[in-house]
Amino acid sequence: MPEELPVDRRWAVGALLIMTFATGLVDAVSFLRLGHVFVANMTGNVVFLGFSVAHGYGLPVVAPIVAMVTFVLGAFLGGQLSRLLGARPRLWLGGSFAGQAGGLTLTALLIGTGVLRPEGRLLLVIIALLGACCGLQNATVRLLAPRDLTTTVLTQTLTALTAQSVLGAGTGTAPHRKVGSLLAMFAGAATGALLLQVTLAGVVGLAAVLVAGAACLFALAPVADTSPV
User: Fold this and answer.
1) Is residue 24 a contact partner of residue 210, using CB atoms and an 8 Å limit?
2) Which end of the chain has fewer surrounding CB within 10 Å, N or C?
């Protein structure tokens, strides 16, 4: 991770692992309850759209497009926040993730009160809200530039963990962060799948609480030190 982190690296790693867990929760919601679409992993949506060219598989078309469009809008917002607040990293990171937590909280409340339901056109509204939240997260984490804690896409993390290991090229360092990222995503997805048997709004609300906690860590955790992680 970059040297200009506003908090101690251990706090930053903890916050990003929390957000990785939250991503697992959100993608469990989108894939299992919103019609087999991803709101955080856009690779999956592009592949689904490619598959949909062949008729007869019954794959969604509109939902992945909605997810990608709103994801891009959220990412655009993330880029603008970085431009405006990047010189004040605590405010930038805390504010960006707090905004994401607010979007997730709003979504959970609308679902919990019955204003939004995972059916028909209302399902697309839920996808849009979650997609925008995940786009904001992805943009912020991307601009933060952690090499092995992307919080969403783990393909590169898994590749680095194996290819750069002592059995591979032998150039990798700090494998515990990569393993932690994989385990956090798995745990989040598994937790989300189990909780969805009871509550949809509750899973989104739990993701909101976790992201809010990560925002607080970036805003309030002890200042960064210079010791190696």
Assistant:
1) no
2) C
The count of other CB atoms within 10 Å of the CB of residue 2 is: 13
Nearest to 45 by CA among 63, 33, 25: 63
**Which residue is listed with tokens 């469009």?**
69
pLDDT in tens, 182-196: 889 899 999 999 999
What predicted TM-score, i.e. pTM, was given to this entire model? 0.85
Instruction: Work out the end-to-end distance of the chain between its first and last CA atoms, rounded to an integer number of angstroms.
Output: 10
Cα 167 to Cα 156, 158, 170, 205: the distances in Å are 17, 14, 7, 41
Of 43, 101, 38, which Cα lies nearest the Cα of 66? 38
- Between 200-220 and 9-33, two packed helices, what is the crossing angle to 10 degrees? 160
- Sign of the torsion angle spanned by Cα atoms 111, 112, 118, 122: negative
